[in-house]
Amino acid sequence: MSHFLRLCLQSVEKATVNLDAEIIVVDNNSPVDSCEMIRKNFDRVKLIENPDNSGFSKGNNIGVSQASGE
Fold it and tell me: To bridge 26 with a disulfide, which of 16, 18, 63, 67 should be the other Cys (CB 3.0-4.6 Å)?
């Protein structure tokens, strides 16, 4: 799973290189090493690590609440 997330984040970073954009990843307590991979490889990504899996919708709402854009 981390492999596909890495590819996705690389693509998003490349696509937003000249844009005023932020990249937010919300992890709902996944059992894989995705958070560690993000911390090591993606300085531009704002990582939010939820202590439990509260569901897709709540995770999205948490991410939106942390966004600084409009």
Answer: 63
Neighbouring-strand partners of residue 46: 24
In 3D space, the residue among 8, 70, 2 whose CA is nearest the CA of residue 40 turns out to be 2
Residue 41 has which token pair?
């490889």
Q: Which of 70, 19, 31, 64 is nearest to 46 (CA)?
A: 64
Whole-number percent of the chain with pLDDT over 90: 87
- Position 53, amino acid: N
Share of the chain above pLDDT 70, in %: 99
Spell out the residues 6+ positions from residue 49 whose beta carbon is closer than 8 angstroms to its own: 27, 29, 35
Instruction: Confirm whether pTM is higher than 0.85.
Output: yes
Instruction: Return the SS3 of 26.
Output: strand
